[in-house]
Amino acid sequence: MRWSHSERTTAWLSKTTVTFRQEINYMDEINI
């Protein structure tokens, strides 16, 4: 259970990080 939970959390964090970066890039393009 711990391993599956750890993998699930890691996948969620990586997905959130990618989405967050895409949003920042989107805002940077608008600012330019």
Throw out a few tags for this protein.
rod-shaped, 94% helix, 0% strand, mainly alpha, 32 residues, 1 helix
Mean pLDDT: 85
Give the proportion of residues in helices.
over 70%
**Strand portion, in percent?**
under 5%
What structural category arises from helix and sheet content?
mainly alpha
CA distance, first residue to last residue:
47 Å
Order of helices and strands: H
Question: Biggest sheet, in brief?
Answer: none
- Unreliable stretches covering 5 or more consecutive residues: none
What's the gyration radius in Å?
14 Å
Q: What is the count of β-strands?
A: 0
Number of helices, where a helix is a run of at least 4 consecutive DSSP H or I residues: 1
The oligomeric state is: single chain
Shape call: rod-shaped
Overall structural domain count: 1
Description:
By secondary structure, the protein is mainly α. The chain has one domain (1-31). It has one helix and no strands. The radius of gyration is 14 Å and the shape is rod-shaped. The protein starts with a helix and ends with a helix. The model has no long low-confidence stretch (mean pLDDT 85).
